[in-house]
Backbone:
């Protein structure tokens, strides 16, 4: 009896745990590509290291063959407050978009999957603890395109 | 969560502000707390997914997002859900104006 009770409870829990994420998930890249989020920027390079970005592009898109163009990226040239840096980008026809930066300890900020009715014209606010590059890479018709902008941060955003 | 959805011609514009501290690993360490931040956000319009993003610790505190999707009608609902690192979820709704 005890054992049965225990098993029953276990099954119930398992269902609850499994059901919660699956209601939301289509492509959750935190689960699908857990290591992508751990790719690091070289902090000694003071926001100039692109190795993290290149590694992330390869991990997310499977190739690092990237062309310039097709993406309109807007970010402030100077951000007075690194805790809130508005970034927006348009990448017409994109199926998948990655937003990265070189200013924080890790590289990847967000990965967008564009649904059928989605319009890849997105704005978010990000944190940058120092001056660095904001990089957007988009998969448009099977080709990768990149846009890059330097944001000069006068007060850091990750200090607390 | 504050959501505004507005019909603009043949597309709908959505602005959302999610209430979340978005504590990065570094910030959390400084404060002696556990890191926690929103990792996944989706938006639906009448059951169809129209926006989807996996996110990291480097979105600002109380993340703000703006996006567009094709279609949508006045009076229809836009439903936005987020999931954080600790597994907590929250859903908010707004009617398209």
Residues:
């Amino acid at each position: 009896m005890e054992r049965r009770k225990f098993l029953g409870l276990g099954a119930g829990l398992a269902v609850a745990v499994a059901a919660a994420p699956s209601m939301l998930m289509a492509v959750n890249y935190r689960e699908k590509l857990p290591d992508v989020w751990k790719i690091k920027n070289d902090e000694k390079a003071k926001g100039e290291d692109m190795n993290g970005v290149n590694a992330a592009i390869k991990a997310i898109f499977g190739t690092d063959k990237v062309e310039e163009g097709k993406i309109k990226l807007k970010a402030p040239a100077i951000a007075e407050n690194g805790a809130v840096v508005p970034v927006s980008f348009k990448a017409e026809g994109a199926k998948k978009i990655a937003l990265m930066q070189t200013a924080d300890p890790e590289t990847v900020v967000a990965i967008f999957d564009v649904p059928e009715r989605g319009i890849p014209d997105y704005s978010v606010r990000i944190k940058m603890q120092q001056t660095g590059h904001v990089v957007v890479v988009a998969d448009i018709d099977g080709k990768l395109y990149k846009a890059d902008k330097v944001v000069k941060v006068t007060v850091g955003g990750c200090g607390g | 969560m504050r959501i505004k959805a507005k019909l603009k011609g043949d597309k709908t514009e959505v602005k959302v502000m999610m209430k979340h501290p978005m504590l990065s690993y570094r910030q959390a360490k400084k404060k002696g707390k556990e890191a926690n931040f929103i990792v996944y956000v989706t938006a639906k319009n009448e059951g169809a997914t129209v926006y989807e993003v996996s996110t990291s610790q480097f979105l600002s505190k109380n993340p703000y997002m703006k996006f567009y999707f094709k279609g949508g009608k006045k009076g229809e609902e836009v439903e936005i859900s987020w999931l954080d690192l600790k597994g907590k979820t929250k859903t908010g709704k707004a009617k398209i104006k």
